[in-house]
């Protein structure tokens, strides 16, 4: 009995060894192309793997990682039979769910099989696409940044280019959440750009993507930091301009008032120009009644502010004297200007600057003799100074005029002068020497003659 048992056990062991050899031989009888045991792809990429049998009589089939037989011959995942001994599996657009072990085997069963592991990575994507958000001052704000990717990306936050150091406590300024950034008790200082940066490293490559959100803080109007002038001057038949600048979110509405009257633009007395953060009132002073208090009000749904500018009567400045060209080249005019000085002391109404307007003669003719589109430059007053007009066109006639400025406005314009820039082409004949050249020549001559003069 014991001998019979030993014989049975020996037979079973020999049978198992033979089965293993046969299984190994059959496993090696199939081949895959590409032959890698692991294939790595990103989502939405394509892939074709060919399974080949040395025996054309063996019918092949593909199985998914879940054991499902691929029966479709078209679609996102399908098979293609190119010859009796070849069967391809085609992934038109790979998805994350496709990862796992894919097997090619004999359809009738048996021991024929060959498999590969499909490893699927997903590039970084953001589910949110808003680029601007608005939050009321004092509220909490959550900037969403839900990131998808395989492997899961790491996320960091930056504010106006600087990294954010976030705490875990509820009372900290910033808290990094799984899908965003929490900001407690927002203030106007929190206005700016918040960048969510996602980093990903895998066996194929590394990747970094960034999503930027501009956060605006809703608040009532506040005056802009530019200097406020509470007292302005003008002269009769002149004009006065009063500026009103305020920051607000949403942008402020502006209105102008004189006493209890709400002012509007009209052709006779007032012109009002308004943008998101400023408003400008221009007053035409037709008589002495225009000298009064003018009040600007800036407001939105969160509050309002207002302030008053006093307009008083001043004196019209005298037109510039000694207006002439001192020197020029192909792109610059050097202009002499001075202010007439009388015996009387003008005090506050003394000339404090000049304005020069200029345009090409062709532009003047095109504009029907108007100065609407003339270029202009303003200069502070300096005794004995000259003033440069630069970036001119060479070999071109320019029309030039000037006016004086004081606290009450501008003077009448001088007579229009016509000046011409030099050509860039060298001149063969001797021309009139320019003042700068003459000065340089005199200096050189003095240096030569100095020893003999001593």
UniProtKB/TrEMBL annotation:
Residues 319-426 form the Fibronectin type-III domain. It holds the Pfam family Ig_3. Residues 1-24 form the signal peptide. SUPFAM superfamilies: Fibronectin type III, Immunoglobulin. Keywords: Disulfide bond, Immunoglobulin domain, Repeat, Signal. One of its GO terms (cellular component) is neuron projection. Residues 34-117, 122-214, 227-312 form the Ig-like domain. GO terms for biological process: anatomical structure morphogenesis; cell differentiation. Coiled coil: none annotated. It comes from the Eukaryota. CDD domains: FN3 (cd00063), Ig (cd00096), IgI_Twitchin_like (cd20949). InterPro entries: FN3_dom, FN3_sf, Ig-like_dom, Ig-like_dom_sf, Ig-like_fold, Ig_I-set, Ig_sub, Ig_sub2. SMART domains: FN3, IG, IGc2. This is IgLON family member 5. It comes from Drosophila kikkawai. The gene is fipi.
């Amino acid at each position: 009995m014991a001998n019979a048992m030993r014989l049975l056990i020996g037979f079973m062991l020999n049978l198992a060894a033979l089965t293993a050899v046969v299984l190994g031989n059959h496993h090696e009888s199939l081949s895959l192309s590409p032959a890698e045991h692991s294939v790595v792809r990103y989502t939405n990429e394509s892939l074709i793997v060919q399974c080949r049998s040395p025996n054309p009589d063996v019918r092949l089939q593909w199985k998914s990682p879940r054991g499902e037989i691929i029966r479709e011959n078209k679609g996102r995942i399908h098979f293609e039979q190119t010859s009796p001994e070849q069967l391809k599996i085609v992934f038109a657009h790979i998805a994350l769910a496709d990862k796992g072990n894919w097997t090619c085997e004999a359809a009738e069963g048996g021991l024929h099989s060959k498999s590969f592991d499909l490893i699927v990575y997903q590039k970084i994507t953001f589910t949110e696409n808003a680029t601007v958000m608005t939050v009321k001052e004092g509220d909490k704000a959550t900037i969403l940044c839900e990131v998808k990717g395989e492997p899961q990306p790491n996320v960091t936050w930056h504010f106006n280019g600087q990294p954010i150091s976030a705490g875990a406590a509820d009372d900290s300024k910033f808290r990094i959440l799984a899908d965003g950034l929490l900001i407690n008790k927002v203030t106007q200082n929190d206005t700016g750009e918040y960048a969510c940066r996602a980093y990903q490293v895998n066996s194929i490559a590394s990747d970094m993507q960034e999503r930027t959100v501009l956060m605006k803080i809703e608040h009532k109007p506040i005056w802009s930091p530019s200097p406020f002038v509470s007292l302005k001057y003008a002269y009769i038949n002149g004009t006065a301009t009063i500026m009103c600048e305020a920051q607000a979110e949403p942008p402020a509405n502006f209105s102008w008032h004189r006493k209890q009257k709400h002012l509007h633009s009209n052709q006779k007395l007032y012109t009002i120009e308004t943008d998101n953060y400023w408003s400008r009132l221009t007053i035409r002073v037709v008589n002495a009644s225009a000298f009064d208090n003018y009040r600007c009000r800036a407001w939105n749904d969160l509050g309002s502010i207002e302030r008053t500018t006093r307009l008083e009567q001043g004196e019209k400045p005298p037109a510039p004297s000694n207006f002439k060209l001192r020197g020029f080249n192909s792109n610059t005019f050097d202009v002499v200007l001075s202010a007439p000085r009388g015996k009387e002391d003008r005090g506050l109404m003394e000339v404090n600057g000049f304005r020069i307007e200029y345009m090409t003669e062709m532009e003047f003719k095109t504009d029907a003799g108007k100065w609407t589109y003339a270029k202009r430059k303003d200069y502070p007053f300096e005794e004995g100074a000259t003033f440069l007009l630069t970036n001119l066109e060479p070999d071109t006639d320019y029309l030039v005029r000037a006016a004086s400025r004081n606290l009450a406005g501008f003077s009448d314009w001088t007579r229009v002068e016509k000046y011409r820039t030099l050509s860039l082409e060298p001149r063969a004949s001797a021309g009139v020497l320019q003042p700068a050249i003459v000065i340089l020549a005199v200096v050189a001559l003095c240096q030569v003659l100095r020893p003999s003069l001593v």
